[in-house]
Every structure is written in structure tokens, then in C-alpha cells.
Amino acid sequence: LFAGVCCCCAALRPRYKRLVDNIFPEDPKDGLVKADMEKLTFYAVSAPEKLDRIGAYLAERLSRDVVRHRYGYVLIAMEALDQLLMACHSQSIKPFVESFLHMVAKLLESGEPKLQVLGTNSFVKFANIEEDTPSYHRRYDFFVSRFSAMCHSCDHDPETQTEIRIAGIRGIQGVVRKTVNDELRATIWEPQHMDKIVPSLLFNMQKIDDIDSRVGPPSSPTGGEKEENPALLAENCFRELLGRATYGNMNNAVRPVFAHLDHHRLWDPNEFAVSCFKIIMYSIQAQYSHHVIQEILGHLDVRKRDSPRVRAGIIQVLLEAVAIAAKGSIGPTVLEVFNTLLKHLRISVDFELGDRRSSAGSATFSTSSKESDERIVQNAIIQTIGFFGSNLPDYQRSEIMMFIMGKVPVFGATSQSLDTSHLGDLGTRRIQIMLLRSLLMVTSGYKATTITNALPPPFLDPLLSPSLMEDSELRQLVLEILHNLIDRHDNRAKLRGIRIIPDVSDLKIKRDKISRQDVSFMKKHGQQLYRHIYLGCKEEDNVQKNFELLFTSLALTTIELANEEVVIDLIRLAIALQDIAIINEDNLPMFNRCGVMALVAAYLNFLSQMIAVPAFCQHVSKVIETRSLEASYFLPETIFKDKCNLPKSLEKHEKDLFFLTNKIAESLGGSGYSVERLSVPYVPQVT
Asked: Is the pLDDT of residue 5 over 60?
């Protein structure tokens, strides 16, 4: 009687329940009953309105089996769900999906790693299914939280730990793909989700052994490598996430990176931070690069009172980001980058001098250590400014040159210059040197069509200011910047080092005919250049490099800007420099006097060969030959040696050792030069 009742009850049960029950074998080791599964699938496709009930019943069975630890039946239930999902794409699949996701959640909540992996695999399969209609009510908050937690698994068994972490990363990847493909794609970009997803991926990326594998454009690891290595899988997911980011949600994806790097103190050392931002810059769409740069600048402002090494680490990250962005679109952030960097340059100098003052009586070691750390920050800033500036198109680069020059504190400067009033003379000098070093890097490789474009008055006037002549290093930087801008034919390398050049034609100097604009420039501003060189030769703290740069300045002016009138002016300037050394009204040391004499010899030797007037060349050669025999310390090859015997005075020297104005005028006059002005001694004019 009891058996008969059971048979009747089974016959009265709904058909979908009987079909579901039939797919489960008596022994779970036998696996899913395929024939009955085909029947269930056919029934679900034929009667899609029953899908929600099938899903609910399968969920009920699975929940019961999970509680009873009947994991074999759990596996069969999930396999059946996966097959039904793949087979059914009708409108009625929506309620079935809710049951499916409820079962996946049950598996993820269990403490059994195998079930967590099983649930993840099913979710990933579901994520790859394109539904016919979007779901406007479904949310994935639980899955984001759960998969993120799995990414941080700390299971005592390393293999299980890796397995769970890989499952968590694949789950996050599934959530991203599913939500991005849905109409309601914006939900995944909400900060509460990104604050879980991004740190989870970065946590796993940190575990990679070979950092170099992350630093380039997106790589293509094989499928096996990605599945086995959490770091590679996390990196691939991170790239995919960033690649899908749009204008409105880019910042939400990037900000958690800063929080992660701050929390784990990954700015010093900053290898991981650099690699992260390289991945970001290569993965996002090029037109959004400026968003990332703005975020880095903002974070630098936030961390402006952190240790020097942390700030240097952030600046280096900025450099790497700029290096990649410069190849594409930097957008409207150009001036903002420079403004922020210059502000932090001043802050760093302030900190350096503050440490020096506050530790006047403390241990030397800590003081010098802090100072050297701040120098690291300053060098990183200069390197970033230089690299950024040198990669800009010429029209933007000229604006940046003006912008930086406007920040240099000089006498009579505008209100735009950096405020160094509280830094004192030492701080002001440090700021001047670093801004000029930045400017030197920005001007490197800059080719202006005319010298007027390269050296407009608002740029030239502060560059040649007396405020930038008070220090040997400052004068060197000013001259090197002038060389960058004047040398339009790359002749500077051929002129390196001050020497008597036997045959200038061997240098293969490149030059063009002097343009009308260049002639006009020299009429307006030539006196400024001459005065700067003249006063630069009178400074007591000049070293060999100063004389070398002064020689190069004269030579480049001759090549690029000298017509017949300018040649006469340059000869007058050279004779005036010789008089500085002979008369010595400024009480210069003997080394400086001999250095000026050597400079004049090297330059007139170069000039005479460039204009190729035989009588002029002969006079210059004769003086040089006499000096080599009687006063070799008047020649650069001797005076700039380490051990050079200096004369006690120059008063007793014969005229044969000097370049004479009347001889030069006579030689040039015979070749058609207008030499009347040679008889008028050069006097520096205040412009």
C-alpha cells in the first residue's frame, strides 16, 4: 500500500520537477544523466514559461545538498544550470537567472574552496552570455564584494590560496564584462565598487616576481600562463577594466590606485607604482591621458608634506605617465603640469633650507641626508619638466619657455615669478639654478625659424639680467640656454672645448645666409649679447667651463648672426676683452686675465678663418705663433692645464703678443670692410 501511494505521488508531481529529479543519478559519481538532461533542456526550450520554476526547484535542491555536504549532487545541479543557461535565451530567462545567481551566491558563501571555484566558473560562463533584453533591476554588489574578498584569500595551503585568488580575479573579470555589456553599465564604475575591485587586482599584481613583464604596452601571455598566475591574470583584468573606462568614469578607476599605493607605502621604492601607471597609460584611450596626469598632480598636492622620497616617487610616476602621454594627447593640462611642478620645486627648496636652519646644531649626518633627499625631489622635478617640455610641439614649447622664464626671480621681475622673499639669497639662487636647468632641458633641440622667435624680448631681457650673473653656475646655464636657441644648425658639438683650431674648414660648419630678420634682431638686441659676454669675462669666479662657453657663444653668434657690421662689432668686443686683461681695472686674478687672453686668441683665430681675409688671418696667426714661443699662458692649450706657470704681471709684455686694432683695420679695410668703427673702443651699453 505504501509503495502504491509513493508511485501515485510521483505521478502527481509537476512534470518539471520529475524532469529535474531524473537528471540526478543514485550515485553522484556517475555524473549528470545526459539523456534526461536533454529531455529537461527540450522541455525548457519548448515551455520557457516554466524556466523560473525549474530554476527555483534546482536552487532548492542545491541549497539542501550544500547544507548536507552532498557536493557530488551540487556539481550536477550547477552543470545542469549551466547547460540550461546556454540553451535558453528567451524573455523568460530573467527569473531563471535570479535563481541561478542565488545558487552561485550560495556556493560563494560556503567555506569550501571547491564550491567557491565551482560558483565562480558558473558565473563566468553566465557573464559571457549575451541576453536578448537588458536587466534594469539586477545588481552585482554581492558578487563584487565576494570576488574581491576571494582575491585576498589567505588560506594556509598555498595551492588552495592561489586557486581561490584566481577564482576571485576571474569573477571580477566576469562582473566587469557582464555589467559593461548591460545597459546599466554605469553601476560597476561607482566608487564603492571600484574601491573593492581595483585594490584587489593590484594586491595580486604585487605578487608577480618579474616586474618588467608589466611595464610595456599590453602583453599577450598565453592562456595557460594567465590561468595559472594570479598576477598575470589580475594584470590582464586590470588592463581590460581600464580599456573599457570612458570620460565620465575614468577618475573613479584611477583614484583607488593612489589609495592602494598610499596604504601599502609603495611610493618608496616606487617600482610597482611606476609599473601600475605604465599599465594605466597604455590601457586607457589616448584622449583620456590628461585625466590621469591631472590625478597624479592632485595627489602630489595632497602628499606635499610627505617625506622627500615619497614625493620623488610620485614625480617619477608623473614623468613616466607624461612620457607615454606625450606620444598622444596631453590635452589642456600642459600649463597645469608646469605650474604644479614649479610650485613643488619651491616647496622642496623651502623644506631643504628649513631643515638646514633647524638642524644647525644637530647631527651633520641627518642634515645632509635630508638635504640630499630634497635634491632627489628637485632633480626629479627638473627631469620631468625637461622631458615634458622637450616633447611638446614647437608652438607650445615656446609658450612653456616664456612661462618658466617668467617664474625665474630676477631684479625687476613681474609678479608671475616664484616668491622667494622668505627663502633668502641662498634659496633664491637655488630656485634660479633649478629653473634655468629646467629651461635648458626644454630648449634642447628647439629649432626656431628666426632668432626673433627663439629670443623674444620678454624672454631675452630676464635671461640676460644682472641677477643671473652673480654666480658661476648661473652664468654657465644662461650661456648654455643661449646656445640651444642660437645654434640652429647643430654646430655646437664641433666647437666644444676652447682651443686654437688649425683649420676651421675641417669642422664642416653648417650655416645659411643671414636673414633680414636676423639682421634686424642684431640691430635691436646685439648690444645686449655683447654686454653679457663682456661682463661675463670680468667675473672673478670664472672657471675653465665659463671660458669654454663664452668662446662657443662668440663662435655661434659669428656663424648664425654675423653680417659685416656684426663682424666689426665682434672684433671691437674681442679687443675690449683683451684690454680688460691688460689694463686690469677690475683687479682680476692672473688666471682670469690669462684666460681672457686665451679666449680672445681662440675666438679671433676662428673668426679670421670664417671671414677668410688673408691679411687678417696672417696677423692672428703671427700673434698666436709668437705667444706659443714667448707666452704660452696666453693660449687655451696651456692656461687651462692643471699645472700652468702664470706670469707675475702683464705690463712688460711686447706688443707682438697682442692683437692690434690698427693692424686688423688695415687688413680688413683692404678687403672692403667698413673699418671706421674699429677705431672707437667698445663700451658696454646699458639697454
From this structure: no
Residues 508 and 649 in one domain: yes
Structure confidence by residue, pLDDT tens digits, 136-166: 567 788 999 999 999 999 989 999 999 999 9
282 within some domain:
no
Mean pLDDT of the chain: 85
Shared-domain flag, residues 475 and 499: no
pLDDT in tens, 375-388: 999 999 998 888 88
**Cβ contacts of 458 within 8 Å, gap of 6 or more:** 402, 405, 406
Please count the structural domains in the chain: 3
The helix (run of H) or strand (run of E) holding residue 103 is helix 93-109
Which candidate, 362, 323, 353, 342, places its Cα nearest to that of 419? 342
How many C-beta neighbours within 10 Å does residue 389 have?
27
Q: 657 Cβ partners below 8 Å, 6+ apart? A: 623, 626, 627, 630, 631, 634
Q: Which long-range contacts (CB under 8 A, 24 or more apart) does 188-196 make?
A: 188/140, 188/144, 189/245, 189/248, 189/249, 189/252, 189/253, 190/252, 191/252, 191/255, 193/141, 193/144, 194/252, 194/253, 194/255, 194/256, 195/256, 195/259, 196/144, 196/145, 196/148
Handedness of CA 558, 563, 565, 568 (dihedral sign): positive
Residue numbers of the domain that contains 390: 331-357+373-480
Q: Kindly state whether residue 196 falls inside one of the protein's structural domains.
A: no
Reported as a single tens digit per residue, the pLDDT across 272-309 is 999 999 999 999 988 888 889 999 999 999 999 999 99
pTM over 0.85: no
Show the cell assigned to 387: 622631458
Which pLDDT score is estimated for 554? Answer: 97
- In the structure grid, which three cell numbers stand for residue 245, read together? 573606462
Which class for 336: exposed (0-12), middle (13-18), buried (19 or more C-beta within 10 A)? middle
